Amino acid sequence: MASVRRHTLSADAADGVLPPDESSLDKGTGHSGEVLFATSHRIDRIPPLHKNATLQCRPRSVFAGWATFTCRQHRGQRLTNIFWTFSQGYTSVKALLLSEYKKLQVTEIPVPEIAPDEVLVQVRACGICGSDIHGWDGSSGRRIPPLVMGHEAAGVVAAVGRDVKGYAEGDRITFDSTVWCGKCRYCLGGRPNLCDNRMVLGVSCGDYRRYGCFAEYVNVPARICCHLPKNLSFEHAALIEAVSVAVHAANRTPVSLGDTAVVVGSGMIGLLVIQAIKQKGCSQVIATDLNDARLEVARKLGATTTINVGKEDAVARVKELTNGRGADVALEVVGSTATIRSAIDCTRKGGSVTIVGNLAPTIELPLQSVVTRELNIFGSCASSGEYPACVDLLASGMIRVEDMITATAPLEQGHDWFARLYDGESNAMKVVLCPSMD
Ligand SMILES: [Zn+2]
Ligand SMILES: [Zn+2]
């Protein structure tokens, strides 16, 4: 059972409570004011013991807050004796736990501890990723319960570790889904997505288990964090991980101004790839999909032509749009034999195909078409230092994500949303869960 400790608000620092700021105590008429306090325990509730005083607490983080007080009895007198109670031992935070496959429940987990190089983040928004959906029934083998999933998040810094520089409590941030080590050959070579020691937040695959962001708080190394501007909402910022996948794919693809690109697959990532490759200078962006609703969004977001491959021959149409030549580049965002084949067939001699799709473990490759036409084939995985650029692209409106957000919901609706997405809710794209509200 949680024991209750009483703290006296006085000029002396008493057991975890900072001395109140005298100047703020003097603010007002003397019987009301505002103080900043800090405690080594999670703030549960702070009821006033003085029965005539009202006290309101506005947490600034798990461990500190502002308290506003008013006393109706002591008019004109200085209030120096307000009592606070803290529930000692209340050291847990709310989280959406995958307790067994296909079962998510809101529960309490210990407050994440931060290492000297880490920050504690109050998670304000976290997107449900396709990989979470493939994980929750056990099919991918990368979400072994018990696990808190979630790797597409944004929030507010609640506490910083001893060695952290550049971040402070209250900073609005997002962070990479991949925890890269910063020390291996690939990290040092500027390719942290290929890190030898990479761990993905919210993944447990047998080699490691790292709790993720469907929780009120999460700990992440400061090196993977990135500041957010004020005009970028947490919900939009939670899509930066997806944006970074698209921006990285565009960065992997050699494009000259005025080139033609084909984007095979117009789902969530495809719609971002369309925008990224257009921003890179393609004057013609041809989007393909089987779903007319998605193709409509593709047009809205900058695709110059859309092809429903269920109704039209994509290769013939692309040839028609490029004087019989084929597209300069194709980006494949599905990951199956048929779609990779389509990407290759749509590409001109000497052109490039970037593969982002990662669905099938193996596919059949039209070898002779690739070799005799000297195609460049690039794989593209996650992102590599593109987060700050993605923040700018979103904040400036050069890449837009609002059309991709199907719903935002509290953690309590997490299970239902997972079930709906798993059942293939039609036209659903990104669902963003908000573990802690304002
Ligand atoms: Zn993801
Ligand atoms: Zn590394």
Q: Major sheet: size, sense and barrel closure?
A: 7 strands, mixed
Q: What share of the residues does DSSP label as strand, in percent?
A: 25-35%
- Shape, principal axes of CA atoms: globular
CATH class membership of the largest domain: Alpha Beta
Uncertain runs:
1-31, 38-52, 74-90
Q: What is the CA-CA span between the terminal residues?
A: 29 Å
Q: Based on DSSP secondary structure assignment, what is the total number of beta strands?
A: 25
Bound heterogens, unique: zinc ion
The CATH level-2 architecture of the largest domain is identified as Alpha-Beta Complex
Q: Provide the domain count.
A: 3
What is the helix fraction of residues, given as a range? Answer: 10-25%
Radius of gyration: 26 Å
For this structure, what is the CATH homologous superfamily of the largest domain? Medium-chain alcohol dehydrogenases, catalytic domain
By CATH, the topology of the largest domain is Quinone Oxidoreductase, Chain A, domain 1
Structural class: alpha/beta
Q: Could you write a compact summary of the structure shown?
A:
This protein is α/β, with parallel strands linked by helices and 438 residues long.
What this model shows, in words?
The structure is a single chain. By secondary structure, this protein is α/β, with parallel strands linked by helices. It has three domains: 3-88, no CATH class; 92-239 and 401-434, Quinone Oxidoreductase, Chain A, domain 1, CATH 3.90.180; 244-379, Rossmann fold (3-Layer(aba) Sandwich). The chain is built from twelve helices and 25 strands. It has helices spanning 22-26, 130-136, 185-188, 234-237, 240-252, 268-279, 292-300, 314-321, 337-346, 367-372, 387-395, 414-422; strands at 3-9, 32-38, 53-59, 64-71, 82-88, 92-100, 103-110, 118-127, 147-148, 152-160, 172-175, 178-179, 199-200, 203-204, 209-210, 217-221, 225-227, 260-264, 284-289, 305-308, 327-332, 347-355, 376-379, 405-410, 430-434. A hairpin with a 4-residue loop joins strand 14 and strand 15. The protein is globular. 42% of the residues are buried. The model is unreliable at 1-31, 38-52 and 74-90 (pLDDT under 50). The structure holds zinc ion (ZN) (2 copies). One zinc ion binds at residues 180-181, 183-184, 186-187, 195-197.
